[in-house]
Hints:
Elements: E1 5-8, E2 16-19, E3 31-33, H1 45-54, E4 60-69, H2 76-93, E5 97-102, H3 105-111, E6 119-121, H4 128-136, E7 140-143, H5 151-159, E8 165-167, H6 176-186, H7 191-201
Parallel strand pairs: 1-2, 2-3, 3-4, 4-5, 5-6, 6-7, 7-8
Helix pairs in contact: 6-7
The protein binds zinc ion (ZN).
Amino acid sequence: MTDFDLHHHISTRMTGIYNLNVGESPPNGYFSAGIHPNLMMDFSEDQFDWLKEISKHERCLAIGECGLDGLIKVDDDLQEELFVRQIELANDRNKPLLIHCVRRFSQIIHFKKIAEVPMIIHGFNKRKTIADELQKHDFYLSFGKSVLQNVNLQEFVKGFPPEKLFLETDGRNFNIELLYQKVADLKNMTLENLQLQIQQNLKIFNISH
Ligand SMILES: [Zn+2]
């Protein structure tokens, strides 16, 4: 069984979800498409038109990354407006949202109310208090390389419900098998049971082929 990589940036990788760049043609595998807050600096309506079209693609599994970022120089109102539009698009397409969030967790939780599809916070490596709040509001969390090093995060992963968990490499260059093994050890599960659980979690993507 392969180790599914929920969010990565390597277009030739076949196991997982490739984060498509705006305007890029789809890869041979699954992908997600969205307008990252970083791109909003030069946002144009053409980008949203592109997203509306590409999100109909059968291998487009999710809308994102999209979300809110408190550390970039893009106006909060513009970020929120485009985030809401992407939530509405995800609702229309019935595809989950892959969320990028930096220092805006309470706002993200607020916008969860309008989402009719699952929301996954990707690259989660924040404090337990934030994680508990997200868990309470039914978010999925996807963990990456930090779990290999961050002891507090390891402690949190131990108790995090396996049915809400995904794993990813994001832009980091490392072997995801290491992460699967680490998380299996932390959770006292066999590697096979962890893989099966994540396979099960992938049902939220309505992969039909
Ligand atoms: Zn990424």
